Amino acid sequence: DGGITQSPKYLFRKEGQNVTLSCEQNLNHDAMYWYRQDPGQGLRLIYYSQIVNDFQKGDIAEGYSVSREKKESFPLTVTSAQKNPTAFYLCASSIEGSSPLHFGNGTRLTVT
Amino acid sequence: GQQLNQSPQSMFIQEGEDVSMNCTSSSIFNTWLWYKQDPGEGPVLLIALYKAGELTSNGRLTAQFGITRKDSFLNISASIPSDVGIYFCAGRQAGTALIFGKGTTLSVSS
C-alpha cells in the first residue's frame, strides 16, 4: 500500500540535543511538507519542498533544518536552537504544490 | 502570516444532530480543503473544493466554497459517535502553501 511513514511514533530527548524525525513516502509525490501541531494552535508550516534538492522555509522554520536528497525522503532535524521543541510533528506530501496534502500519522516529540 | 478563522472552536452535540462549522478569511482563496483528525493520528482529507460556489458531498458530509472565495462551510448530518475528532479547514492562494485553521473539536454523546 502506498503511504507516508513517520518514525518513530514517540521520541524523547534531553534538552540541548539535536533530533531527526524521519518521513518517507512511496506515493511518488513531488512535494513534501513538515507541520508542527500544538494544542489549540492548528497546524503550522515548518518547511516544505516542491522538488528534490530544493526546500523553502515556512512560518516557523527557526530552530529546524531539513534536507531533500531523495524524492521519497524529507527528514526534519529539530536543533537545540528550537526553544519549545515538544510538540506533535506531521509530515505530508502532495502530487505537486497545488494538490491536496496527504499526511503521515505523526511523531510526538518530548524534550525534557 | 495569513490566517484562517475557524469556528466554533469546539462543539458538544447529541448523536443524530446536525453540525455546522465554517472558516473565514480576509483574503481570497482558490482552494478550500476540509480534513478530520482522530486522536494521535494524522489529518485525513474529507472534501476538496476548487471553484467559488461549489457544493460537494461525501456521505453525510457537505462542504461549500463560498461565493466571495473568502469562506467555506462544512456540514455533518445525523452525527454518529465516530464523527468525534478535530476538523480542520485549509485554504490555498495561488502559488502559496496551504494554510490551516485552528480546528473545531467535535464531541458526540450517545
Question: Keyphrases for this structure?
Answer:
heterodimer; A: 112 residues; mainly beta; seven-stranded mixed beta sheet; four-stranded antiparallel beta sheet; 11 strands; globular; B: 110 residues; six-stranded mixed beta sheet; five-stranded antiparallel beta sheet; 0% helix
Task: Summarize the structure in words.
The complex is a heterodimer of chains A (112) and B (110). Helices cover 0% and strands 52% of the residues of chain A. By secondary structure, chain A is mostly beta strands. Chain A has strands at 4-7, 10-13, 19-25, 31-38, 42-51, 54-57, 64-66, 76-78, 87-94, 102-103, 107-111. Chain A contains no helices and 11 strands. In chain A, a hairpin with a 3-residue loop joins strand 4 and strand 5 (42-51). Chain A is globular and about 35 Å long. Chain B is mostly beta strands. Chain B is 0% helix and 53% strand. In chain B, strands 2, 4, 5, 9, 10 and 11 form a 6-stranded mixed sheet that branches. Chain B has a 5-stranded antiparallel sheet with strand order 1-3-8-7-6, with no helix packed on it. The A-B interface holds A 4, 6, 33, 35, 40-45, 48, 58-59, 90, 92, 97-98, 100-106, 108 and B 1, 6, 9, 31, 33, 35, 40-45, 48, 88, 90, 92, 97-103.
* Rg estimate of chain B, integer Å: 13 Å
Q: What amount of the residues of chain B lies in strands?
A: over 45%
Average pLDDT, all residues of chain B: 95
**Overall number of strands of chain B:** 11
Distance between the terminal alpha carbons of chain A, to the nearest Å? Answer: 36 Å
Largest Cβ-defined interface: A-B, 25 and 23 residues
* Mean of residue pLDDT values of chain A: 94
Low-confidence stretches of chain A: none
Order of helices and strands of chain A: EEEEEEEEEEE
The biggest sheet of chain A amounts to:
7 strands, mixed
Oligomer: heterodimer
